[in-house]
Hints:
Elements: H1 2-24, E1 46-52, E2 57-59, E3 68-74, E4 81-90, E5 104-109, E6 113-117, H2 118-123, E7 125-127, H3 129-132, E8 137-144, E9 159-167
Parallel strand pairs: 2-8
Antiparallel strand pairs: 1-3, 3-8, 4-7, 4-9, 5-6, 5-8
Amino acid sequence: MNKYLSILGASLVTTYGSLALANTSNFSVMKDDAEIEFKANIDAQCGLEVLKDKGDLAFGDQYLEDAAEIKIVDNRQNGSVLLKLDELEYDQDDYLKSLEYSFFRFKVTGSADKEGTALAWMVGKTFSRDELGSDRKLEIRARVSLSEEDAIARDDLTVKTEWVTICS
């Protein structure tokens, strides 16, 4: 029985060897160059990322240095982005005078500066790719067109905002 297995094993080795020799003879017929293409699909992205979610609130006519920071995410080639103030929340009881949205002003700074009242930002302002700059980071500063004397003295006076982008 061992003799039968060794003959079968030798037969398989011989057959395998002859197949390998037969395939090596085809190399001389093959081309020496080939065109190869790689593909990818990249989905369009547009939105914003919050880098710093707090800034100082100023009173009067001047903004303070400390700003909130966002980054616009936009990988579209020629698009522009509309940045809008979606929500503005404040406690009316924090102020001695009745406030309207026109009292709140925001300045958005990147490669270009844009400023306006809360009402103007609720309509939105458009930023081109050039106005966003290469890093696409924007600083947002806020102020209330009111003197500090017209606000209640406290440590935690806050104005909360929510911003959105619309890709066009």
